Amino acid sequence: MWFWILVVLLSMDGITGWWWWRGRREHRYDREIIVAARRYGIEAALIKAVIWRESSFESNVRGSSGELGLMQIRPAAAQEWAQSERIRNFSFEHLQHPQSNILAGTWYLWKLMSRYRGVDNPVPYALADYNAGRSNSLRWNSGAAATNSARFIAQIGFPKTKLYVESVLRRQEHYRSQAGLKPD
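^ thats the sequence. predicted structure below, dont judge the formating
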């Protein structure tokens, strides 16, 4: 009997510890996210949702196509950001630093969203572009999907990209519903 009570208590302690660690991990970059959101006029919940999907809040992640960091930035996008921000002596490896990575990724999201100003909701278009590239995004952006984001999502031709867009949008809603991002 005592053995089972001890097992239940240890299990509850483990679950509590896991929930605490998970919550802490999801909030550790809130300050940097808020700074980037204000700087580029992008909703903080969207930035956080992209980070969640791209790297699960692990700053040292490297992608199979050369992407780097929290927001999985590619070298070309990083260089564009550095030129736009007039950063001298920029090296792609600078994006290993979470603050630089979040700024570069948020700038890139801002750039992509700017391409889709004439639509009902530019976020799904920008997310598809972020994930699958401009040429693919343009292919899906035809007919009613040229201005209607729900139709656009339905036309996304890559199942993984469609899942990416839908999961980021759901996670964005999740972060919106929380008490807010918590700057330390």
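Residues 28-177 form a domain with the Lysozyme fold (CATH 1.10.530.10).
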